[in-house]
């Protein structure tokens, strides 16, 4: 594949836009649904929880989140205007019933008051964080005391085998993420890595190792 094509794939994964962005978001949803469900299940969601997600993509998984407990409220934040629109459209019933709320933000400052959420999660976004330390402190700020944050990402050992990750991506292994977390006030509750089979761009099945880290304020 040409350098320009690889660069275009990386840009779409970082910030989906236009017709190609919609296609890319559908593909991401399909490829990453196991990681997303795993992240949601590790949050130990209970009734009445207020939950924030950073970088939801097309948010085709929000229905699954609402199956976890009664009277939940879901808040989604995106940097991509296209993903914000797609997510609102896909979840229009939840939006009109005021169960799901979507907004666009700058990727650095979380536009909510301190101690707003019981649970926060993010899947496959850490590679694109402009200032990881600052965003972690923002996540800490908007989490309620004893609230949980679940961070899910594919391991560097797998990601570096994908040719497009040389552009736009900062890759992380568990050790590198835990080093970032050490500099915050979060307590590590649980770390788990698992390997799953996913379809590669050329159609064959490959092993992807991903990690979920559950933190507590
Ligand atoms: C690779 S996609 C992952 C989407 C979905 N979470 C998944 O795993 O399929 C990354 C998404 O995160 C968004 N994004 C990138 N940087 C972000 C940030 N700092 N905060 C929130 N979202 C971000 C992008 O717009 C994109 O929709």
The gist of it:
The chain is built from eight helices and seven strands. The protein is of the alpha/beta class and 217 residues long. A hairpin with a 5-residue loop joins strand 6 (187-199) and strand 7 (205-216).
Number of helices: 8
**Cα-based radius of gyration, to the nearest Å:** 16 Å
Ions, cofactors and other ligands present here are: S-adenosylmethionine
| Spatial ordering of strands, largest sheet | 3-2-1-4-5-7-6
- Corresponding CATH architecture: 3-Layer(aba) Sandwich
What structural class do you assign from the helix and strand content?
Answer: alpha/beta
Low-confidence stretches: none
Mean of all residue-level pLDDT scores: 96
Number of strands: 7
Name the helicity range: 25-40%
N-to-C series of helices and strands? HHEHEHHEEHEHHEE
Residue share in β-strands = 25-35%
């Amino acid at each position: 594949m040409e350098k320009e094509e690889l660069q275009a794939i990386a840009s779409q994964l970082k910030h989906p836009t236009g017709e190609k962005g919609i296609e890319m978001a559908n593909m991401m949803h399909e490829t990453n649904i196991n990681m997303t469900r795993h992240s949601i299940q590790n949050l130990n969601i209970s009734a009445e929880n207020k939950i924030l997600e950073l970088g939801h993509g097309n948010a085709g998984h929000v229905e699954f989140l609402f199956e976890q407990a009664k009277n939940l409220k879901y808040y989604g934040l995106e940097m991509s205007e296209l993903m914000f629109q797609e997510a609102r459209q896909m979840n229009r019933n939840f939006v009109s019933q005021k169960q799901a709320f979507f907004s666009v933000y700058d990727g650095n400052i979380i536009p909510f008051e301190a101690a707003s959420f019981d649970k926060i999660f993010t899947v496959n976004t850490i590679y694109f964080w402009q200032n990881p330390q600052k965003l972690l402190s923002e996540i800490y700020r908007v989490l309620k005391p004893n609230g949980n944050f679940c961070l899910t990402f594919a391991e560097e050992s797998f990601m570096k085998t994908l040719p497009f990750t040389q552009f736009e991506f900062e890759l992380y292994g568990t050790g590198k993420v835990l080093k970032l977390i050490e500099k915050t006030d979060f307590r590590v509750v649980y770390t788990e890595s698992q390997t799953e089979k996913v379809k590669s761009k050329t159609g064959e099945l490959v092993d992807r190792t991903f990690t979920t880290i559950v933190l507590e304020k």
